[in-house]
Amino acid sequence: MTSVEEPARSGERIRDAARTRAEILDVATQEFARAGYDGARVDEIAARTRTTKRMIYYYFGGKEQLFTAVLERAYGVIREAEQELDVDHLDPVAAIRRLAELTFDHHEQHPDFIRLVSIENIHEAQHIAGSEKLGKIGSPALDVIRRILASGQESGLFTADVDAVDLHAMISSFCFFRVSNRHTFGALFGRDLLDGAQRAHYRAMLGDMVIAYLTAERSAD
Amino acid sequence: MTSVEEPARSGERIRDAARTRAEILDVATQEFARAGYDGARVDEIAARTRTTKRMIYYYFGGKEQLFTAVLERAYGVIREAEQELDVDHLDPVAAIRRLAELTFDHHEQHPDFIRLVSIENIHEAQHIAGSEKLGKIGSPALDVIRRILASGQESGLFTADVDAVDLHAMISSFCFFRVSNRHTFGALFGRDLLDGAQRAHYRAMLGDMVIAYLTAERSAD
DNA sequence: TAGCTAACGTACTGGTTCGTACATTAGTGA
DNA sequence: TCACTAATGTACGAACCAGTACGTTAGCTA
């Protein structure tokens, strides 16, 4: 019975704290994104991991802290993408367009992130509030926007009174909505906002919208 | 002990099917919006009603159907608001601005509706899909947009290639995001998008954005 | 006013789910 | 190589929660 004497090497107990922790985070991200905070099942996360539920409590303390850790990592990913952005060689119009496209692409490629943020909003951002990591770090994108805006306004290309945070909200709202509300929008209006054939169209539309807003002469304030 | 001999007249059993049903819907709307579908408690809904849990099952069949009923009513409210919109006497620019403001105002005044839609998207619009009511009815706002767009494009005020559904998505995304992502946005960027002092600013910003997009000459497509 | 039914209430159950007490082993440093 | 600790596994409990079996009554109608 040699096959029994060697019961699947992968079944042996190998200790690797980092890997176990990372694997739990991966699966938890999927499960929370799939079902929401209350819909997610700790047992289900454990079952889809090479380890057991005990380890989730050992490493993270509980369901709540696990969700916070998942959020922290998800926000870390988008911050990294933003940090890699290099638009200093572009003129303000092209730079803003590039930034908008980065957000557009990232949101599209990370639907789980969008779902996690939606879920966190249902819970009134209580996990962000309770996280030291997430509280501190700002958004690299904001710094970039500030620089581009200043440059564009100085040269007279952009209208004067646009705020960086506002512009970030404008860009984010379009990119976020497209992913977050895909299902209800599709069900009600019969159009899939994530349809691949329309991707380039919506990507250009976002840029056109933002640039039009930035370059239009504003009516009396 | 006279106070015991008359144990609150309101505690008597009065039958009013319509009122009971409506009361359950009211409380359920709050509870689902507060905690999400899985976070909501049928017992909690019942407790905050003058009736009992038994009645929820009597009238609605179950938690799932109750949520669907809640959604149906919430969508009904916004459709009614849209139907009351009368912009035929306005020029296209003013008409679009008026429509955008209606969406802006409605979303701001109905945060529960926004939360319900967010929750429904987490569940991939499965309740809308399973609802006869919600599947059929379109959006009066869309018809209005179509009419305004046609008029504006005919007169040459608006650029030609804008689609009504796209424009609706653009307006909705800004208005929706402002409410739905209020908490994470506030926690991360230190700005409350629903701050009353900024309300007029964001309301104008939305109109400016949409009009700028509609009146800008478009780059090659 | 008798009888019928829609409307309502109580009490319970079966399954689920987060969390933990307790036992065990791999790997490391002395 | 021995002992110690970080890492892991098993089994279980207590609370919770959607849903229901069963019994009751208000109000209408013939």
Q: Work out the helicity level of chain A.
A: over 70%
Strand-residue fraction of chain A?
under 5%
Per CATH, the superfamily of the largest domain in chain A is Tetracycline Repressor, domain 2
Number of domains of chain A: 2
Structural class label of chain A: mainly alpha
Work out the number of β strands of chain A: 0
In angstroms, what separates the terminal alpha carbons of chain A?
Answer: 85 Å
> Could you list the spans of chain A in which at least 5 consecutive residues all have pLDDT below 50?
1-11
CATH class of the largest domain in chain A: Mainly Alpha
Number of DSSP helices of chain A? 13
Q: What is the average per-residue confidence, as pLDDT of chain A, rounded to a whole number?
A: 91
At the third CATH level, what is the topology name of the largest domain in chain A? Tetracycline Repressor, domain 2
Question: In a nutshell, what does this entry contain?
Answer:
With 221 residues, chain A is mainly alpha-helical.
Notes on the protein architecture:
- Two copies of one chain form a homodimer.
- The first copy, chain A, is mainly α and about 220 residues long.
- The first copy, chain A, folds into two domains: about 15-60, Arc Repressor Mutant, subunit A (Orthogonal Bundle); about 75-215, Orthogonal Bundle (Tetracycline Repressor, domain 2), CATH 1.10.357.
- Helix content of chain A is about 70%, strand content about 0%.
- The first copy, chain A, is built from 13 helices and no strands.
- Chain A has helices at about 1-5, 15-40, 40-45, 55-60, 65-85, 90-110, 110-120, 125-130, 130-135, 140-155, 165-180, 180-190, 200-215.
- In chain A, helix 6 runs parallel beside helix 11 (about 165-180), helix 6 (about 90-110) packs antiparallel against helix 13 and helix 10 (about 140-155) packs across helix 11 (about 165-180).
- The radius of gyration of chain A is 22 Å and the shape is elongated.
- The model of chain A is unreliable at about 1-10 (pLDDT under 50).
- Chains A and B meet through helix 2, helix 7, helix 11, helix 12 and helix 13 of A and helix 2, helix 7, helix 11, helix 12 and helix 13 of B.
- Chain A binds a DNA duplex (30 and 30 nucleotides) through helix 4.
